[in-house]
């Protein structure tokens, strides 16, 4: 089993409304250019609205009445640089990856541990990558599944419309789709599926005496923050913040807080 420390950060239709938290209070004035005029058009004017899909810990999860996590820490920094507050809403993953949530003005950005793929690029525009991760294979303790080779004929829980979903289909294996990671884990515990495949970084939070990651499935998977296709102005601001947080040490602080160790050097 590969240690979580081997993951390499690559930083170089109704929605349930929940307030996102940030480590820094953001001003409530709208984003402006040098002349004082609004520079970025946001769906709520003086709020950066973020679509996400918890639970996907440590990237997004619910703590009390708030959605928190690494992605929310990053988008809070984007909001701070824009000079606005942040609000986070829960949205179906398929609505985010298809661009529907952005096209219908549900939110300004999507931050949900979303992999950058060619298919998704047709619907949404991505920031520079901020995290790289392989897939993991999670099973119940005592399972006869120990590697990819043991998956033939098994029911594999996957999160709908994710890289793990595609990986299982491409391998010709039997996938059972779920709307979110929490439902995948529940299905594994109750015996509805024999194994779960999702991103290694998030499966690690579920390891226990009952559940174990038995294999790493290498991919070229990298995460990006998404904006509506053609929204170049906002995308530039997102990329500028990602570059800043890496250069000023904020990324190291966020990563260490959420994973318990500093990111590897690029």
Automatic annotation (TrEMBL):
Lineage: superkingdom: Bacteria
One GO cellular component, as annotated: cell envelope
Keywords (A to Z) from UniProt: Signal
Keyword Signal: yes
Primary location class: other
SMART domains the UniProt entry points to: PBPb
Keyword Signal: yes
Boundaries of every Solute-binding protein family 3/N-terminal domain copy: 47-262
Pfam families given in the database record: SBP_bac_3 (PF00497)
Annotated compartments: Cell envelope
Similarity comment: family membership: Belongs to the bacterial solute-binding protein 3 family.
Protein's name in the database: Amino acid ABC transporter substrate-binding protein (PAAT family)
Organism listed in the record: Flavimobilis soli
